[in-house]
Every structure is written in C-alpha cells, then in structure tokens.
Write a structure and sequence with these properties.
Structural class of chain B: alpha+beta
Helix content of chain A: 25-40%
Distance between the termini of chain A: 22 Å
Radius of gyration of chain A: 22 Å
Number of strands of chain B: 40
Shape of chain A: globular
Structural class of chain A: alpha/beta
Distance between the termini of chain B: 89 Å
Oligomer: heterodimer
Order of helices and strands of chain A: EHEEEHEHEHHEHEEHHEHEHEHEHEHHHH
Helix content of chain B: 25-40%
Largest interface: A-B, 25 and 20 residues
Strand content of chain A: 5-15%
Strand order of the largest sheet of chain A: 3-4-2-1-5-6-7-8
Number of helices of chain B: 22
Largest sheet of chain A: 8 strands, mixed
Chain lengths: 428, 777
Amino acid sequence: MSTSERVLVIAHAHPDHSLGGGELAAHGHFRELRRQGVEALFLARSGEPSGHAGTPFTARRADGSELLFHLPPVDHFRHSQPQRTLVYRDFRALLERFRPTAVHFHHYVHLGVELIREVRRWSTQVPIVLTLHDYLGICHAHGQMLKTSGVLCQRASPLDCHHCFPGHTPPQFFLRELWLKSFFALVDVFVSPSRFLRDRYVAWGLPAERCLVLENGQTAERPAEQPAVEPTDLHQRFLVLGQLSRLKGTPVLIDAVRALPKAVARQVRIEIHGSIQHAPEEFRSRFLADVTELSPTLRYCGPYLPQDVDGIVATAGWLIIPSVWWENSPMVIQEACRNGRPVIASNIGGMAEKVAAGVHGLHFRAGNPADLARVIAEAAADAERWQALRAAVPLPPTIAATVAALRQLYASPRERLPAELATLMATS
Amino acid sequence: MNSQTLPGHASAVHIPAQLDFAHLAGHCLIAYGWIAGLSSQAASAALNAGGRRFDLLNEALVISRPDVSAHLGLPAGEDDGHGFFLLVELGESVLTDTQLRLSLTTRGGEVAQTQWSLIPGAEVTAHTLRLHERAMRVLVPRLSPRQVQLLTQLFQPPLQLRASDLSGAGHRAIGPALHMALSCALDASLVVLAGTLPVELDDFEDITLQGAAGDQPVLPSLHVLPQAVHWPGPVAAGALPPARPRAFLALLPWHEGYARQAELELHHRAQATQGVQRLTLRQHGEDVQNRLTAWLRELTPDNRIAACEQLLAALPAGERGRHWRESLVLLAESTIGELPNAVEGKDELASVSVFPERIVLVPGAGLLLEGWANADPGLAFAVHYCCNGEVQTVSERWVRRPRPDVRAHLAERGFGNVDEPGFSCLIPVAWPPRPGYLRVQAGKQVWRLRVRLPEAVEPTRRLVRTILTMVDPQCSELRRHLDQHIGPAVSATWAARPRPRGTATVQHFGPPPARPIASLVIPLFGRQDFADYQLALFTDDPELHQAEIIYVVDDPTIIHDFRQRASDLYAMHGLAFTLAYPGDNLGFAGASNFGAAQASAPLLLLLNSDVFPRQPGWLGQLCARYRALPDIALLGAKLLYEDGSVQHAGMVSRRLPDWQGLWINDHPHKGLDPAPLSGVIEVPAVTAACALIDTGLYRSIGGLSEDYIIGDFEDSDLCYRARQQGRVCRVDLDVVLYHLERQSQDLGDAQWRTALTLYNCWLHDARWGQAIAEGRL
C-alpha cells in the first residue's frame, strides 16, 4: 500500500480513559494501520473541556497521531451534536487539514451523527465506514435490545419503544429512526463483528449489501507463552471474565452454583475475575455475600489487567459467558479461542453465534440458572469430551487480517465499493 | 276539650261554652273563650265581673273557631264564629271580684249563664299566654295598635311580632292620609306624584287628582315600588306605625290647565275612609330636578332603579325627554353598584334563585353572561337586562344547560330535580358598554341584580379561550348556543384581533435556487426541532435543492432561538431556506398566507412541519403530476402515521351526531393499510398538511381563510373555494410521506382544543353546510 493512504479513525472515547470493547477495537485498528505503514489519525471524543482556547482538539500523543475531540454532551435520544459549529467549522477544518482518503467511525455515540454528513459534504469521494458495536441505532435502551421490563426485545417499533420509555411518544421514536437513518444513508460500509447484529440492522432497514460481517480481530492468534505443566483437572475448572453485572449474567451464575448437586460442588472450582467497581452498592454487597456463602466452589478474584488475561485463562478449562442480553461479539470468546479453551455460553445472539455448540463449546438457556448448573455438572463429569472440544477450538481472526480487509475497502473508489464488498462477503 | 254547659234560665236549654282563660294583669282584663253559635245565634253576650259588664259582641273580637266546630261535630266552615277575645284596659277602676259570669241571650229569647274564675297576676297571665301564643299571633292583625301594644307586653318576655303577624294591622290605624313626598311636572309633559302608601294598593278604592284640568284617576298610573320602606308620616300617640308602608310613584299625563293653576287636590278612598290633600304641582325645572333627585336618592337602591325605570318608560320619546332620560340613566347607573349580586328568594310569593356568575366583555358583540337561574315552575319568570334605558329579555334568548355543580344547592332549597339550571347568553349592547343590571321577575316579585362589568377587555386569544370555555358540547341546545351566542362572540373577537405587534422579517440562509420548481411553505409553531429533522431528511434529495423552502416562524416565543440556530441549520444540512417571521402568532392560515406571499415558484406546497418524506423523489413526482392535470385545484399526497397506517388519502364531509349534526372533515381509510391505495383519485378536499396548488390560483382565491382560529377546517374551505372555480381536488396516492399528526400543534388542554375545533367546525358548517347537504360540494 502506498503512503498516500490516510485513514481517519474516530472513536467515542480513548481507551486511555475508557476500556470498553469499542474503544479498544478502534484503537487496535488504528495501531494496526500504523503498523502496516498507513498514515492514520485517531480522533477520540473527550467529555472534558479542551483547555485550549479556540479549538476543541488536544493532542494525546506528541506525534499528533492521536487527538482528543472535546465535545459537550449530545442529545442522547437522537445522538445529535448540539454545538454545530464544532462540526461544520472545527471538524471540517480537521478534514481539510488531514485530507483522509477514508473515514472509519467506530461509533457516533457522544459524538453526534452530524459528523457523518460533514464528511460526506466535505467529500463525495471518501469511503465512510461505520462499525456497529451495539444496537444503539435501533434501540434507545443503551442499544441492548433488552426491554426496560427485562424481556429480550426482538424488534423495535415506535409503540413498543414508547412502552419502554413512556416519556417519549411513538412519533418521537419514529422521528428518531428517520433521523438516524438519514445519516446512516451516507455510510458506505457497515462493519458488524457478528452476523447476528448485522441481521438485526438489516431487518431494521440497513441495506444488506452494505453490511459486512468482520471480527475486530485479535492482536495475536496464540498467547506468547504457554504454561509448562498443565493441571489434570482443567475440565473441572471454570472461569468467568469481565465486568460483573445483572446484564452480564452474574446473578444467573451465582444461582447456578447454588443449584449444583453437592457432589459436583465439591469437585468443581469456579473463579470470577472482573470488576464490580461500577456496580451499584446493593449489587456489590449482595454479590460478596453470595461469594462467601458459596466458597470454596466459587471464588472471586477481583479485577485484572488486559495483559494478564492469557495467564488467567490458562488456569481453567472452561470459560462461562452467562450474559442475559444479546451481546455482539464478546471479546471473552475471542480470548478463550486464542487460549484454546471451550466456552459455555448463553444460547442467544452473538454468544450463540460465536460458540458452536458441541463443537468448541456448550450452550445453556439464557437466564436459566438450573440449565447452567446442568451444563456445568455435565462438563465437569466428562474429561474426554472436554479434550475433544478443546481440540476443535478455532483460531480467532487476527487484527492484521481484519485491517487488511478494511484497507481494501478504504482504497476502493466509491463507485467500485459495492463490487468490492460483494467479493469480501463471498470470501468471509 | 272540656266545656261547660250554660244552664238555661227560662227553659231547659243547654248551650256549650268555655272560657279558655280569663286573667287580670296590671290594668288589663284579658279573656279568650267560646260560646257555641256566638256569631250566628246570640242576640247578646256578656262577661260580668265586679259590677261591670263587657259586651262580647261589641267590645270583644268575635273570632272563627273551627276547632270548636270540630269539637261539637258541626259541619266545618259554616258559622265557625264561636270564639271571642276580650282585651280591655280597666284604667283606675280595679276589679275586686274574682268571679266572672258569662251570660248569653239567644235570638230565640233563651237566657243562659255560668260562673268562671278570674285569675289575677302578671306571671300566671304570661304563662297562659305562652300556651296560646299561636292563637294570639293570629289575632294580632285584627287588633288595634293599642291592643297590640298591650298584648305584646302581657307576654313575658314581651311577644316579638313579625312582619307577617302584623300584615293588615294598620287597617284601623291609618288615618286618612297618603304621605305625599313630591308633586311636580317634568318639562310640561309628565305629572309625577310620589310618596308613601300606608296600606296595600288593593285597599284603595279610588285616588283622584282634581284641579284645573278636571279629574284624573291616579290609581291606573300608580306604581308601587317593590321594597318596603319606613313610614315617613306621623304616628298617633300610642299607635304603631303601618306594618308595610310602600313607596309609590304615579305618572300622569300633563294638562295645559296645570300651568295656570298648580294648586290641586288629591282625593282618596280606602276602607270606607276618605281623605283629601292639597298639592302644589311644582313646575320650575331646576326645582323639580332637585326635588325629584332628592326623592329618588332617599329610596333604597332597588326602589330608586324601579322608579327610574317607570320614569324612563313614561317620558316622551325623542328630543323632548332627552335631558330627563340622560339624568335618570346616570342616576340609575350610579346606583347599580349598590344592588345585590344574586337573588335567592323564598317566601310565600315566590321561590327564585338567580346567580349571574361571569360577565365577559366581547367588543363588537356585547356581553356574554353566564350563571344559573331557577324559579318555581308555576311562576311567570323572566330575566331582563336593563342598560341605558333599554330592556332586553335575556330569558327569551338564553341557552340553558346542565349544571351538576349547583343541582345539590338547588335541591337543598326545595327546587327538586332541575335539569338545566345554567344559562349562557350573549347580550348585544352598544360599544363601549354602559353599566347595566338584571331585572328578575317571578310572579309579582321583582328583584334587581348588579352586573359588574370587567374593567378591561381580555386580549384576543385569551378572550377567545374564555368564550370557548363556555361551550358545553353536551348542551342540548348546542347549535343555538353556537349560532346565537358563542359563534358571533368568537367571530367578532377574532375579526377585531390586533395586527401583528412585531416587525415582519424575511431572511435568506444560503442562496435560494434561481428558478425553483416549487415553494414549500412550512409554518413552525411551538417546536422548532422539526425544521432540523426535515432539513436532514430533505437535504440528500437533489430535487429539494431545486425548491424554495420557506419556514414561517409563527411563534414569537421561538423566533429568537430559531434565528440564532438558522445559520447553523444551513451550515449543517447545506440546504438553503428562507426564514419568514410575520411579527406575531397568526395561526396556521395566517402564517401560510404570509409565507405564500414570499413565494417565487409557480407552484406552492403547503406543508406541515411534522410531515417527513419516506424517500427522495416525492416533490418532483407531485409537481410533474400537477402540471399534467389541467383542471387541478389542489393535489395532495398519501400521508402515513408512524406505524405505517393511513393518516390521509383525501377528505370527505360527514355529519357528527355528537355535535348535533355539524359537518366535519373525515379521513377515509385512516388507520388502515395503505397498500391497496394507488393512482390519482378525485376527492372532495385534501389536507393542508401537504397540498400542492398553483401559486396564482392560491393568491386569486385569497389563500387560506384566516377566520378559522389557530388551524382547522381552513384546508377544506380553501378546497371548496377552489372548486367553485370549476377545478377539482385530487390525491396522488403514489406519493407517500409521513405525517405525525398533531405533533406540530401542542395546545395542551384537551377541553380547550375540543372547544376550538368545535368553533372552527361551526364556522365551516355555517359557510359550507348547506352546499354540502345539497350535494353541491
């Protein structure tokens, strides 16, 4: 690739400040682009005031490759940037200065969808790529398609959305949809890390031919180091990784452990690694009491750093992902794959898609502790099956491959993009 | 009843009799009893005590005792006069005997007598009288004033007499005189006699004015003023004043002879007494004015106004009586404030409740009066509005309505179940309005109630709202209420609305297209964010860049904000538009007309701010279709709700039974699947939410009518006017947009909204109802 490739990667936050999956993926892409020799600019929104008079931009890296875009809070209903001069004057100036050959949005939340139109108004030529990390375009409920009543949502409609948010009328939800779609219409390629999420957006009205399924990709296929000696009871050791919350299925796991037959409970070890810092006080105290009650079967090991993940995964045979919402493409599943570990997952959404049941993992009915207990007991009882599943764990897609695919899109003239996309879709 | 029998003297006759009581208290002898057939059979009857004889037929009252008839088994009502009541002052001569002898001589010559005890002592007398208090009260009207005085004092504490006890008590006390206060002539056209009557008018047999012009009967021209007054005349020593003296006013024709001889005699006959008074008929203008005014001012407010009414009615019309009319009107007007504000009368004559609750000034139309009123069904009941010497009968025009809130109040007062005690009435008055009052008439009773006019007229919109809150769609006379009261009041108010207060401005954001295919006129009211949504949904459609987009900000409360944001909107969306501000809130029609006046394209698209396209290409298709139809008036589009069902596919007229058959605009297919609807169809009318019309045609027929308030029905009105030009209205069902109906008009209060729709509906019905009914539209 020539160095005339200039890619503007836009994220809703910088991973230095916020360790969400979207932020990490965006920054990972940016670094990979740079690694591959592409001139890339990382623009991350910051909610703090700029500190520089007369500009909303500050530098995050001395080389100017990473900028913070200081923006006021947006209208979170229709994701509109209220300070429009920041869009048509400052953001436009950035575009004119950097002159990207492609613009990749890793989100519009906190930024404002107006940025998308500004890119298109600046240039009718540059491809615009938008990675969909959640269902936010479809769903006002944190983009989770989980109704405020706790029921999984199959399809948004103005009236149903109004039932979730009585403060907003059905026409308001309809207008929200019209509004967002008027900006999404300017996007050339929607990247979705899971087919499930892509299908939801296609059902919502995004053109299928512009919706590409592409994993964000892992920095390495295999961990750098493997432990020298492996314990023999790995199939009886289970691991839960990541944030602890109701949505992530923590209460489902707790109740499943409580439901384990006594003999099984004595056999198995289940460890939870992750942060409860951001959980509500009531949830935390309840959780800690539960952990104490269920010791030693269940152990809470506290938060961990991203670089420690491989070491932690290596100590157990299984990963459990008990989320009660759809998820997209959970990073935990990719990390399990990288470490050759089968996964026990809720049988819905991105989790069901990414874990092939009976091939390199097992499913249980989402939100059902008894079913999870059954699956844990069966898994712990069958060392041979564990070995078989383990052997079938696929290698996760690498970030290098993902970025290579994206670069094909970035580089193609807009009129040739549909053909390029069709080829990519056929091969993936 | 224990009675004795009077033993016969000459023959063995037995005549039942009883002395209920006989007492000696102070210097008075008081006795109450009966003798069977006293009034019909007795030749003489007497009480004898201590050598004195008291003649019962002359010194006592012979009274009706139906209870005795019942006791004796006699037919009721015939010759009940068995009773007697004796009350005499003995003066210095004191009775020493404690025995009473009751004696009777019948017309047949039999003589009978019996003995009774006379009980002395004030305390025991008072005790006995208390036991007979009711019987005593009944007697009061027939007693002389002195006797009344004595009787009341024999009670301990003294008997308190009520007006009803005393009615008629003056019969024997009047003496001969009317009390005259005034006799004068007004400008040689009207003779005025005024004064006070001591008794009821009916008691007078004749009153005649005698003088140079011959005899003039006074009684036919004599008006008794409604409220009782104090007796201003002399009262004889020891006598009580008349119980219910009444002021009067007699208005007689003028005779030239009075100018030569002002000394007149007033003769009257009443209760077999006669009297004559000499009068001087005063004729000097200033003197008359002062005396008449002074007399009127002495009267109670109600009497004063009643007197003014009589005078105003009797004064000659035209220039001759003008001076007097003006001063009488002023005097009456200055009195209105002293009148009561409501009447709730319940006495033997009438049961009446009248409560005027609300008066609204409606410039150009009159006063709207609301309240509730009720009278006994048997009574001739009328409510008049009197103002500037003119009288209007409110109760002939008013509209009655249910008032559940006052039903309980009326029931408590014995009115039973009153269906519609409320009333509402537009009273036409000259402008500016002068003070007026209500005259309530029920049977013979008259009350006058003040009507306090509001100090100021409400501003137009508030006034419209105030008037419209008086409409009750449930009212059984809804149509008449609208036709005669509410409709004219609102129309007059709206027609007199002030011109815009602010300065109209027109600003362009971005360069307008050189030769636009159409001018979009989009009023904004309340919400301005719709412009943001619309521009976002328009800007990626190249045809919209060929259109002139005119946002008419019809709302002074958002113009500042919108102006601030307008350049942002243009810079963000890159679509040029015009910002037109008419200087005030004009309503949908006014705003659209203001926008249309700025339009430079040959076609005009009336568009609501809550209409949004589904896909690009809609405007071009609509314009192309319009140009291909030579006879087209207005061309509409298929409009959908947010759920995808039909909001509009043309409008038809339908009678609304709930509103007594007023014609409303109905939207066929509303809420149903839009898929089966395609092609271009002819319709009676299209909605102005999205309607294309030739700019010249629009202007030539005067645009949208601004008589409809805020927005409703002006679209079908426009369609009907265009169709009167021989053109037709159509909907292109292949052009589809969304209409989030009513999102652009947030008026809050549902009751107010309904009332407003009702008014617009009524106006539309008044203009087009007949043509629709006759199938001409």
